[in-house]
Task: inverse folding
RNA sequence: GGGCUUAUAGCGCAGUUGGUUAGCGCGCUUCCUUGACAUGGAAGAGGUCACAGGUUCGAGUCCUGUUAGGCCCACCA
């Protein structure tokens, strides 16, 4: 017997266990056509990332599934990796350089990209290391990075394929532009956020009003939230049905602060009700205006540069930051009396998802993916149920987005990422799209070719992840075996960014869905409901929690408080749940190992039914029921339900009852007289429980598994199968009676302040057929657990004069305590019990007198209600008699 | 503006297809170091299930509305 300390200290085990696992090779999976594959590809964290609670939750969920399936005998593969996270990473490295006083422009593209690679070498594995501390059983040999050679190959292949199908095009459009990151963004990367803004009403004077005499008020008032963009106005539009402006259509206006002449045009797009019903048309800085200008053949005027500063078209405002320019322009308009009024106006404006800068709608030449044709099959597979979302409600969100999908802007004006496989002939302007750099122009033969400067959106590589990690575009064995993957586990934030696009790419490039189930878990928030973020300073660092409570505690706790798809509210104390439970498991095992002999450890399979007593049958019934329920819960992605089932079984059934019941049978007994059967059952139930717990708490279960005896990892032990012939309702209800008796006696002790040390003599009167034998079969258990020295069972029990009593459905309890009993107190106690029952009977009888109930409710419900009433009445009577007798 | 989601004990949450005495964890009260565990054990107290209607013999559970949170989407300048 090893010396096992009375406390589970995670630090003594986690590191060594993890390295043993890694060395064992059990994390690694190869195609094995004799087994079923079970594949998960990790949502690749950003290479700049450090582990936060969202990751902890996300990866714990995946590891639970992976470990569970591995134990079930699948070829369980969890592909790990990181995402190059174009903009985010470029920003980080740029900031580092900045601290050294270097800009990336000074460094130049090549050197700068080199710097990023160096940075990645140094810090890029941080999050991977952190995942290991969590216990993640990823196949690390297969760790991928979106900029790896193979994955980059996949990106080029995808681009070329789509281009050749006409699904990628280049064009001049208004896109979301981040002036700080100086790149285009997709719509998803520029989420709208509400801001408290202002609506400026500006007077545009008629040309014929001559010199800008505001006093005349002869002109049109337009309303805008972004007055600085007026410098790019090319017209004012009104709704053709708007009577107020009918006469003014075609009239010439002078753009204030400039000399520009413009016309009043009509367009159905204009909303009569908003503002003044007249809208300034700024095609280069607003996408609606751009469309409108196109309809009217108006040339856009760009007044801002990529840095968010006004350009030469802004005249004397040139060089000013856009918000500076706004202030100045507003001031000048006011001075000229052209600013009619300013209203408070809250509206939503796009913000860069990386740096939170206000997005500028910006006219520029970019590359796009035509999404509608890709979306169609991806809508189909979800509608037909080939891909299921858990919880279901996300299906609607997904479909709604997919059905309104817009083209995807994929070019980014940054340096870190996959460069577009696009080459321009400098001579004839031909565009060549090719995976490898062409030697000469296919059209004119010129060798003067230049590759496009832009890189692709990070998500253009992530959307290939489920198959690029398995070797695509090569037709690999891995791809054939492990694809499609089983389930995608993710947070709702990246449903559109990533999940939807993976479904599209899977259907497009492999012709097969990438996964059949999508499990979407909640967002991790702090105790007050705020999203955890560095800037809010409300982060709970998972590594701190692992240090303080252990990885198992972190894992168990976070799952325990996560109900399907609901957000998770965290505070440090919550991790005590898991820590305490790990300790409980540790100590229960310690008890078992301290009291079980070597022979039982071998497990001779003495679990034959005829060898079992009632307690054994009961715990095996509960065990098998639990196995069944836990497996079912996992199948349905009900993680917290699965967990609480094992928790309740292990702590309450096994520790609180079974172990307590059998204690005297094995403690202090000599090796020969020890009940061998009990020992084997203890081991069997313990081992089964460890297996059920292993996916949730891998470290402590492994540590104990090895304490029991040296052997291979619990990681590859077979997942328990429920053996239904152990499930026994009769035994379970018998044990309920036994527990009820014990609780009743303890109750009396507690109510009447009888010390535990005082052993009691108790008389039990069974009231129903069969109860007597249940009691006598379990007399020893009752005596031990209720701390009795004598237990008399007699149907015709004659109640001694002075005694404490309990009355239950199945039995009466008498505890004679001559001379000790406080009659008044006992009377009060019993009367209180009786009152409770009386309240119940009133309610039940009322129900039974209700004709509607009797006539309409199913027969069995009515009968059950009658039986219930009968039992309550009986108990009230018995209590009454008992009180009288006192 | 559209959609989703939440409201159950002081706090955090479960409550499967409508039928229990409405559960669990933390906290609280009382007792207990009884040979695994005080990160423990035993016994308790605490809820008119947000509000108002409706369906039903019966509603925490289904429907409608209201209120109050939260989230996502959206081109009203």
Result:
């Amino acid at each position: 017997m090893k010396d096992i300390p009375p406390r589970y200290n995670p630090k003594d085990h986690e590191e060594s266990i993890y390295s043993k696992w890694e060395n064992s090779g059990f994390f690694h999976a190869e195609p094995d056509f004799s087994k079923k594959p079970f594949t998960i590809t990790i949502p690749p964290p950003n290479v700049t990332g450090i582990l936060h609670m969202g990751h902890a939750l996300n990866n714990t969920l995946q590891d639970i599934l992976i470990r569970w399936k591995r134990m079930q005998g699948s070829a369980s593969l969890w592909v790990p990796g990181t995402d190059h996270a174009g903009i985010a990473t470029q920003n980080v490295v740029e900031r580092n350089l900045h601290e050294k006083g270097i800009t990336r422009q000074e460094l130049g593209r090549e050197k700068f990209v080199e710097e990023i690679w160096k940075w990645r070498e140094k810090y890029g594995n941080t999050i991977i290391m952190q995942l290991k501390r969590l216990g993640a059983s990823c196949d690390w040999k297969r760790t991928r990075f979106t900029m790896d050679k193979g994955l980059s190959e996949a990106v080029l292949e995808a681009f070329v394929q789509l281009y050749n199908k006409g699904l990628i095009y280049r064009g001049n459009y208004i896109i979301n532009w981040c002036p700080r990151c100086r790149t285009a963004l997709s719509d998803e990367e520029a989420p709208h956020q509400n801001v408290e803004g202002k609506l400026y009403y500006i007077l545009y004077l008629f040309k014929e009003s001559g010199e800008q005499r505001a006093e005349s008020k002869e002109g049109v008032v337009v309303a805008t939230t972004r007055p600085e963009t007026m410098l790019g106005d090319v017209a004012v539009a009104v709704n053709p049905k708007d009577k107020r402006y009918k006469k003014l259509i075609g009239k010439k206006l002078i753009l204030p602060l400039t000399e520009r002449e413009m016309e009043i045009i009509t367009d159905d797009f204009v909303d009569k009700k908003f503002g003044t019903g007249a809208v300034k048309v700024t095609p280069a800085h607003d996408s609606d205006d751009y469309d409108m200008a196109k309809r009217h053949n108006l040339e856009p005027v760009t007044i801002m540069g990529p840095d968010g500063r006004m350009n030469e078209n802004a005249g004397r405002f040139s060089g000013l930051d856009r918000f500076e320019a706004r202030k100045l322009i507003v001031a000048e308009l006011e001075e000229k009396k052209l600013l009619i009024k300013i209203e408070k106006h809250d509206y939503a404006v796009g913000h860069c998802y990386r740096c939170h800068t206000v997005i500028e709608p910006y006219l520029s030449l970019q590359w796009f993916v035509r999404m509608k044709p890709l979306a169609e099959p991806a809508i189909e597979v979800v509608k037909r149920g080939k891909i299921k979302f858990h919880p279901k409600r996300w299906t609607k969100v997904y479909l709604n987005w997919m059905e309104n999908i817009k083209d995807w802007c994929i070019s980014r004006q940054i340096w870190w990422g996959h460069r577009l496989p696009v080459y321009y002939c400098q001579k004839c302007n031909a565009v060549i799209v090719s995976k490898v750099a062409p030697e000469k122009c296919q059209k004119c033969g010129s060798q003067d070719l230049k590759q496009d400067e832009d890189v692709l959106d990070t998500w253009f590589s992530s959307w290939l992840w489920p198959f690029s990690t398995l070797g695509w575009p090569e037709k690999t064995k891995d791809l054939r075996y492990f694809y499609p993957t089983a389930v995608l586990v993710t947070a709702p934030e990246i449903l559109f960014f990533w999940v939807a696009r993976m479904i599209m790419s899977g259907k497009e490039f492999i012709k097969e869905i990438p996964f059949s189930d999508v499990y979407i878990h909640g967002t991790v928030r702090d105790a007050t409901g705020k999203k955890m973020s560095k800037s809010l300073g409300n982060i709970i660092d998972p590594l701190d929690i692992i240090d303080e409570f252990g990885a198992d505690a972190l894992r168990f706790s976070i799952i325990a408080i996560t109900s399907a798809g609901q957000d998770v509210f965290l505070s440090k104390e919550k991790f005590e749940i898991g820590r305490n439970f790990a300790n409980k498991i540790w100590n229960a095992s310690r008890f078992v190992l301290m009291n079980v002999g070597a022979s039982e450890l071998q497990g001779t399979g003495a679990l034959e039914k005829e060898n079992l007593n009632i307690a054994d049958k009961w715990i095996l019934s509960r065990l098998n029921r639990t196995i069944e329920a836990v497996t079912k819960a996992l199948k349905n992605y009900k993680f917290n339900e699965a967990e609480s089932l094992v928790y309740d079984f292990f702590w309450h059934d096994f520790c609180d009852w079974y172990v307590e019941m059998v204690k005297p049978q094995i403690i202090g007994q000599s090796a020969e007289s020890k009940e061998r059967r009990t020992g084997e059952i203890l081991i069997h139930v313990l081992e089964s429980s460890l297996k059920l717990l292993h996916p949730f708490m891998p470290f402590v279960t492994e540590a104990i598994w090895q304490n029991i005896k040296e052997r291979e990892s619990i990681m590859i032990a077979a997942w328990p199968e429920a053996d239904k012939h152990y499930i026994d309702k009769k035994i379970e209800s018998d044990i309920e009676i036994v527990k009820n008796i014990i609780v009743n006696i303890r109750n009396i002790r507690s109510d009447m302040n009888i010390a535990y040390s005082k052993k009691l003599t108790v008389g039990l009167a069974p009231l129903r057929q069969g109860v007597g034998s249940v009691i006598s079969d379990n007399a020893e258990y009752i005596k031990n657990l209720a701390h009795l020295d004598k237990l008399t069972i007699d149907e015709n029990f004659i109640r001694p004069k002075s005694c404490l009593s309990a009355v239950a459905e199945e039995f009466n309890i008498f505890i004679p305590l001559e001379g000790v009993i406080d009659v008044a107190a006992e009377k009060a106690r019993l009367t209180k019990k009786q009152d409770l029952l009386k309240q119940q009977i009133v309610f039940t009888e009322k129900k039974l007198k209700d004709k509607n109930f009797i006539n309409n409710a199913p027969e069995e419900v009515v009968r059950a209600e009658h039986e219930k009433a009968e039992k309550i009445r009986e108990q009230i009577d018995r209590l009454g008699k008992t009180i009288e007798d006192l």
Summary: Residues 85 and 182 of chain A are 16 Å apart (CA to CA). Chain A has a mean pLDDT of 89. The longest strand of chain A covers residues 192-206. The radius of gyration of chain A is 37 Å.
